[in-house]
Amino acid sequence: METVGNRGAAESTRTPAGVPDDARLPIGTMVAACFAVMAGQVGIAIPATLNGLFQEYFHPAGSQLTWISDAFLLPVVVLELTFGVLGDLFGRKRLLIIGSVLLVIGEAMASASPNIQMLWISQAISGLGAGALFPTSLAMVAAATHTPRARARAIAIWAGFLSAGGFIAPILGGITGNYGSWRWSFVVVAILGVIAIGLTFLADDSSAPEGRSLDWGGQITLAIGLIALLYAVIQGPEDGWGNVKIIVGFVLAALLLVAFVAAERRARSPLLRLDLFSNRAFAVASAVAVVGMFSFLGTAYAVSIRMGPIQHQSTLRTAVPFLMLQGPAFVLIPVIERLLHRINPRWLLGAGFAMMAAGQFLALRLDVTDTALPSLIIPIGLVGIGFALAVSSITSASINTVPLHYAGMASATTNLLRDFGFTLGPALVGAVALSQAGKTFFANLSTANLPAGQLGAAQNVGKVGGPLAVNGLPPGTPGSAAHATAMSALGHGYAIGFLLCAICALVAAVLTLVAMRGGAHEHAVEAESLVDEGAVPVGVALPHE
Asked: Within its chain, how far is the Cα of 85 from the centroid?
């Protein structure tokens, strides 16, 4: 049985000799990894403040607006596990450079997109780059730190910069969208990608090639299964849940995801080690990562649509709630670092999700005609602080409960599940909200007492683009008299979206507190220490506190 003591070839990293891991963090690696993940997160988050401008420029119908965000997120989710393997095999530093290059190319293309279809393609290329940046940067951090204190500190800093990207994105989007063009927002992200390429040369390389190889069966079944699932979820409200294509999408997704599990059980070098989930702390953290992160980004998406395409507020004003959503995770880095070292992640996770649920329950009570920013401070502030506690705790609970040899796979799995939750946020909230808004709009339209010409025009526009399209009609144009009806329907639809997010956050909080017993993050690292001394073989679990 393999031990950590004879694992030098498996996890190689160039760390200065004689420097204790708990004395200082590897500065070059930390700078490169944190800036790369920040740049990737800016790429994910920046479209949120620009949805109003996209609506005005491209006039998207139905789910086309949702695809702008999910075109980026989909390749991130689909390929993160494979990028984790590639980093283990060929070196994480090289993969970080490749990911940054793809991000630059995609963002440059997005800035020049003549239509929404080209914007989708550009976002997908950027997402491909981000899919390499997220697991690779976290694996580099995990591989370069070996003690509980050093790793907890490094993960807190990494997670803080992850949220710093979300904090910076609305500022950049708000300024460029308000004083220039939405195109300049993508140019700025491309510049960040160029800087990330340069900083990567400061990092130490690391890899874990022993026993690792590409798992084509697992990758193909996972990729097609997730694509089919997200297509069905996003297109369902527009095409109809009973549409043959939607039903086929759900069935295909179910079959292929089952096939993925079967393929991983048989694979010599699986894309995902299913026995990682035998660790209860890792399994619970994985489940709540999906549910909780769906809840968070679903809220962010609902706020974006509410303030942009529905209320037509400026990009600068739209940026304000996103600062409250993402800012706390960056500002509270020193506090969360100490909490992660002293408190079981179970309590931080539970408290974070409970705060998110409280904020979301308050948000669903907001009047859609209320455009005052102070109304958002308490609900959105609670969600932001709750997210700050949750995102670092999920990462810590996941990475620190597995041996260092599996840091690359565990980091890729953690990022996959977190970003799958993120991808589901806009998809499900958009699907539910638009579906409910459409039903409410047409139900109320018949009692709106509109002139015949206005009524017919509103019905025609609503059938093609839904209530969002009617809400965006310029005053005086045919169908614009139904603006108030459309706005009311959209307010109802997105209130249900907030309710869905609140329920999911509450479920994540309860699941964390009830199921995640023990699992203190020290044990995995302590186990490695004992293995080095020949006391415990790898794979033997130590008792949880």
From this structure: 20
Q: Where are the alpha helices (DSSP H) in 400-482?
A: 407-445, 452-471
The helices-and-strands tally (H runs, E runs) of the chain is 18, 2
Q: Please check whether residues 199 and 220 belong to one and the same domain.
A: no
Handedness of CA 53, 57, 59, 60 (dihedral sign): negative
Residue 545 maps to a domain = no
Residues 204 and 222 reside in one and the same domain: no
Q: Residue 248 falls within a domain, yes or no? A: yes
Q: Structurally, how many domains does the chain consist of?
A: 2
Residues 409, 503 within the same domain: yes
3-class DSSP state of 369: coil
Across all residues in the chain, what is the average pLDDT? Answer: 82
Stretch 353-381: mean pLDDT: 94
- The pair of structure tokens assigned to 359 is 């904020």
Longest CA–CA separation in the chain, Å = 84
Digit-coded pLDDT (tens) for 226-266: 889 888 887 886 777 889 999 999 999 999 999 999 998 88
**φ, ψ for residue 256 (rounded to 5)?**
-75, -35
Query: How many residues can be counted in the chain?
Result: 545
Q: Are 203 and 33 spatial neighbours (Cβ–Cβ below 8 Å)? A: yes
- Judged on CB neighbours under 10 Å (0-12, 13-18, 19+), 452 is exposed
Which range marks the domain in which residue 121 is found? Answer: 25-214+269-532
For residue range 273-323, list pLDDT tens digits in order.
Answer: 787 787 777 787 788 889 999 999 899 999 999 998 899 998 889 899 988
- Beta carbons of 438 and 469 less than 8 angstroms apart: no
C-alpha torsion angle, residues 519, 522, 526, 527 (rounded to 10): 20
Helix boundaries (H) for 204-332: 216-239, 244-266, 280-305, 315-331
pLDDT band at 333 (very low <50, low <70, confident <90, very high): confident
Question: What is the phi/psi pair of residue 181, to 5°?
Answer: -150, 155
Could you give the 3-state DSSP secondary structure of residue 12? strand
54, 59, 64, 70: CA torsion to nearest 10 = 0
Six-digit token string for 396: 């810590």
Q: What is the identity of the amino acid at 427? A: A
